[in-house]
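Protocol step 6 of 9: fold each sequence in the batch and record its C-alpha cells directly after the sequence line. For illustration, a two-sequence batch is reproduced in full.

Sequence one:
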Amino acid sequence: MPELRRQLVACRRHGQTIAFTNGCFDLIHAGHVQYLERVKRLADVLVVGLNSDASVRRLKGAGRPLMPARDRARVLRGLRAVDYVVVFEADTPRALIRTIRPDVLAKGGDWATSTIVGADVVRRAGGRVVRVPYLAGRSTTRLIQRILKGYGCQG
C-alpha cells in the first residue's frame, strides 16, 4: 500500500485525476469490463479495490469466491482500463478510500447514492461520486446459475 500511495502522489503531481471503484469481481464478464471502461473515462487513473477472499465469503456466502483474490487481481490488472488493483480485507472500502483520496468514487447504478460507502469522505475532500450503469442482463450470480443449470445442478 505505501508503494501505491507513492505512485498516486506522483500521478497527482503530474495533474492526473484518480477514480476508485471496488467489488468482488468474481468471474469477470462483459458487464464488469464495460463498467470498468466507463469508470476509467471519468479520470486519468483507475484504482480498483478488490475484496479479499474472506471478505467475499462474508458478503456472498461460503461458496464464494470462485477464484482466489490473486487470480481475480491478475485478471483485473490485465484489463486496459485498470491501472492499479489493491486487495482489501474489510467488508467495506471506507479505510481504503480515506487512504487513496480519489477525485471520483464510482459505483454501479444499482447502488443508491445514499448507500455508497465513502461518498461522504470523497465529497468532503472536494471529489465527486458517480453512479455508472451496468450492462443489462449481466451478473456473476446469473452466470453461476446458468453454469449450474447447464450441468444439471440446482443452484
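Sequence two, same batch, same settings:
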Amino acid sequence: MREDTVEVTGTVIECLPKAIFRVELSNGHCIIGYVPVKNRGDFDGLEIGDKVTLLVSPFDFSKGKIIGKRKGLK
C-alpha cells in the first residue's frame, strides 16, 4: 500500500459495466470502485452485497481501487 492512500471497506450496492461497482462505505457515502485490468480474473464473482476493501486517494474520495473481497451476508 502506498503511503498517500487510505484503505476503506464498504458493500457493493450496484454492478456497472466494465468491472466498475458502486460501493457504500460504512459512513454512508457512496463511491465508485473499480477493479484494475490485471486483477479482473480475481474479482469475477463480485456481486451485490459483497464486502470489499478499497484504496482511495486522499485527493479524490469519489473513486477507489478494489483490492480485496469478502462474501456478504445474504
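Proceed to step 7 once all outputs are recorded. Observation for sequence two: The mean pLDDT is 90.
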